[in-house]
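Lab channel / #folding
Pinned by the channel admin:
"Please post every new chain as: sequence first, then the structure tokens as a reply. Keep commentary short and put observations after the output so the thread stays searchable."

First post following the new format, from NK:
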Amino acid sequence: MPINERYPVAELLKACESFVKERRKIITFEYILINGVNDDLAQATLLAKQAKKLRAKINIIPYNKVEGLDWKRPNLKRIDAFRRRVEAGGAKVTVRMEKGHDIDAACGQLRLRQEKEQAAENTSCNN
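Reply from TO:
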């Protein structure tokens, strides 16, 4: 991912290679697709190359909009183009379309709402 700094991708891939070699297990990459951040076709090509090398599966997860963050979900056409590019690169890929993102009820969205409600309750209890 282009913004990754805490865990360099090269180190992560090296660990994945060791895991696959030692355990003889299939790994799955959960790839959160963020509009304008990591959804370009060059990223899809790189992802496919690494996944194919590791014989890994890829779950593409379109980003769920969260209040207070500027990131956005790519449109369906962009998601499909990304998936097709990964597939064309020889990797096994699925797109996980979560329900509820349109009403802020998908993964990550409900938790934020719950945390805000709890914070509001704590504030009113302390006053």
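NK: The helical segments are 9-23, 41-54, 76-88, 109-126.
TO: also worth noting, The chain has one domain: 9-98.
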